[in-house]
Amino acid sequence: MSNLRIDNSVRLIGKLRLGNNVYIAQGSVLRSIDDSITIGNSSWVLENSVLIGTPEHSLKVGSKTIFGHKCIAIGAEIGDLCEIGNGVIFLPSSKIGNMCIFGEGTIIPEGRVIPDGSVVVGRPGRIIRKLTTEDKNMISRMRGNDISLSSYVENIIDNEAKEGEKMGNLYEYGVKYPVVAESAFIYDSAEITGDVTVGNNSVIGSGVRIVGNSHGPVKIGNNVQILENSVLHLLPDNELVIDDNVIIGPGCIIHGTNIGSNTIIESGSIVCDYSKLGKNTLVKSGSLVKQRSVFEDNQIVEGFPAKIVGENTEIQKKPAWAL
């Protein structure tokens, strides 16, 4: 594995197939459910990104593709020589051609197909033009003026022992110390500080930060999942309450809010202070729930800022990307 560069703070979960000279930077998490992540030679995943593959939608990344900081990719197919800006989100079954450029913060919806040589920006992403000669020169320059592709050489990583060796870190703040149910599981790179309560059978994923300092309390119910690299915090004189059976996707920012039971908040969403989400709410990926927003039970919300786009008529099932 000497030809792989993987930082010590990276977490690799499940069976992953990585090409030669792959680089995974600090704080990134790759979670492969049932052998569902393949990354080509010389691709880079920069800091605090989250890549997830599932049996329904495997994640396949080509060679010499570079993810910027805090990117999220779930069950997508991404070609060779792509240049992916910071904070880009790829959703399941999206298919990306070779040598594409994505502007920062772009969201590629489920099932979207992007042809070779596209420049894509927006939420949702839209193709604004085809690559110019200047674009192609930039892609080449960022790869040392070598865009040749070598034959794929596979390195298999299977359930490295970093996960599950020990529970995550709990920190005191003043006289407050986190209270975590015995049946809860805190992944080893997660950190919980201060006035925080975690209920039965809840799971706090890799790289999650939950901060209940002088602004607490943070109350997390039973059977809650808070997934990779999400951050929970709140403003003074407020509280953050998450009811039972809530799932918060990877890369979210959740501030002092009330989240009703059976709610699902998809990847890369932001929920701001003094807001309220009713029971069985679905917040779509990359949405922004503004301060003091109130959404009643069974709503589907999406956008930047989030607005009601539909209604849930049944209790939501756990998504394939959940733990």
Q: Please, how many helices?
A: 1
Largest sheet: 11 strands, mixed
Task: Round the mean pLDDT to the nearest integer and report it.
Answer: 95
Poorly predicted ranges: none
Q: In angstroms, what separates the terminal alpha carbons? A: 27 Å
CATH C-level class of the largest domain is Mainly Beta
User: How much helicity do the residues have?
Assistant: under 10%
Beta-strand portion reads 35-45%
* Count of β-strands: 41
CATH homologous superfamily title of the largest domain: Hexapeptide repeat proteins
Morphology = globular
Protein name: Carbonic anhydrase/acetyltransferase
Organism: Clostridium mobile
List the helices and strands and how they pair.
Layout: E1 5-6, E2 11-18, E3 23-24, E4 29-39, E5 44-45, E6 50-53, E7 59-61, E8 66-67, E9 72-74, E10 77-78, E11 83-84, E12 89-90, E13 95-96, E14 101-102, E15 107-108, E16 113-114, E17 118-121, E18 126-130, H1 133-141, E19 155-158, E20 169-171, E21 179-180, E22 185-186, E23 191-194, E24 196-198, E25 203-204, E26 209-212, E27 218-220, E28 225-226, E29 231-232, E30 240-242, E31 247-248, E32 253-254, E33 257-259, E34 264-265, E35 270-271, E36 275-277, E37 282-283, E38 288-289, E39 294-295, E40 299-303, E41 306-311
Parallel strand pairs: 1-3, 2-4, 3-5, 4-6, 4-7, 5-8, 6-9, 7-10, 8-11, 9-12, 10-13, 11-14, 12-15, 13-16, 14-17, 20-23, 21-24, 22-25, 23-26, 24-27, 25-28, 26-29, 27-30, 28-31, 29-32, 30-33, 31-34, 32-35, 33-36, 34-37, 35-38, 36-39, 37-40
Antiparallel strand pairs: 2-19, 17-18, 40-41
